[in-house]
Structures are given as structure tokens and as C-alpha cells.
Amino acid sequence: MNSPIAEAVETRSSNACPACSHPLDAHDTLGTRYCTATVSSRLDRGCICPREVRTGKPDAKR
Ligand SMILES: [Zn+2]
Ligand SMILES: [Zn+2]
Fold first, then answer.
1. Proximal ligand: closest to the CA of 32
2. Which ligand is the nearest neighbour of the Cα of 33?
3. Amino acid 36: pLDDT
4. Could you tell me the distance, in angstroms and rounded to a whole number, from the CA of residue 42 to the centre of ligand 2?
5. Distance 12 CA to ligand 2 centre (A)
6. For 4-53, how does the pLDDT look when each residue is reduced to its tens digit (9 = 90+)?
7. Ligand located closest to 31 CA
């Protein structure tokens, strides 16, 4: 029998932000601070990541 679970695991990168689940690579200094504060204060205020990151669509190469 195949287990359907195996496929779903690899989607999220290991360095995802705990606050907004965007890759930490996508955060600038301010964004990292912002999200760190969000987590430590348990706020629900979204994040300040750049738009490109939020859409989840990497822009097509030109
Ligand atoms: Zn974040
Ligand atoms: Zn974010």
C-alpha cells in the first residue's frame, strides 16, 4: 500500500519563518525583526515581506 502522507511533507522549507511561513531568506533585516516580535508577542498582524514573496509566485524570468 502506498501512504499518501509521504508526498505532503516536503512542501515547506525548513527555514520557513514561524510568523508568516515565508522563507527566512525573503526577509530583510526589518522583516526579520518584525516577525520575531510577532512571534514573541503572539501577535496576529501579518508580515511586512515584499509583495513578490506574499503572492508566492516567483516572477517569470525575462
Ligand atoms: Zn516572517
Ligand atoms: Zn512574510
1. 1
2. 1
3. 96
4. 15
5. 14
6. 655 545 555 578 999 998 999 999 999 999 999 999 999 999 999 986 65
7. 1
Q: For residue 56, is pLDDT > 80?
A: no
**Interval between CA 6 and ligand 2 midpoint (Å):** 26
Residues 22-56 as b/e (b if ≥16 CB within 10 A, e otherwise) read beeebbeeebeebbeebeeeeeeeebbbeeebeee
Site of grid cell 502506498? 2
pLDDT at residue 57 in the model = 57
Burial zone of 16 (CB within 10 Å; 0-12 exposed, 13-18 middle, 19+ buried):
middle
DSSP 52: H
Ligand (nearest to CA of 34): 1
Whole-model pTM above 0.90?
Answer: no
Return the C-alpha cell found at 33: 525583526
